[in-house]
Write a structure and sequence with these properties.
Number of domains: 1
Largest sheet: none
CATH architecture: Orthogonal Bundle
Order of helices and strands: HHHHHH
Length: about 100
């Protein structure tokens, strides 16, 4: 497992005030397992463990695996809602001019 994954896990856990023990309990593994994950030395993380870890850390799987640089990309629905809100704000500003 690349060290960068361990760094992402460690940084996100810290941001959420989660300990290695918290993560271990959630995944049903030992604290040593999580320590090796943090260090980038843990190999063989199952799909179920990866999914549970991403859920716990509120991260997108692709971000954790280094496939994109956005921790939580917007869904199509969220993006549509955001664009509608921006459109409404812009329309309001234009009407005031």
């Amino acid at each position: 497992m690349p060290k960068s994954i361990g760094i992402r896990v460690r940084n996100r856990a810290k941001a959420l005030n989660l300990t290695q023990n918290d993560i271990a309990t959630h995944l049903g593994v030992s604290r040593d397992f999580v320590a090796r994950l943090y260090a980038g030395k843990k190999r063989g993380l199952s799909f179920e463990q990866l999914d549970a870890l991403c859920h716990l850390l509120e991260l997108d799987t692709n971000f954790l695996l280094g496939r994109n640089s956005t921790p939580n990309p917007l869904s199509d629905e969220e993006l549509g809602d955001l664009l509608n809100e921006i459109g409404a704000i812009v329309s309001t500003k234009i009407n005031k001019c």
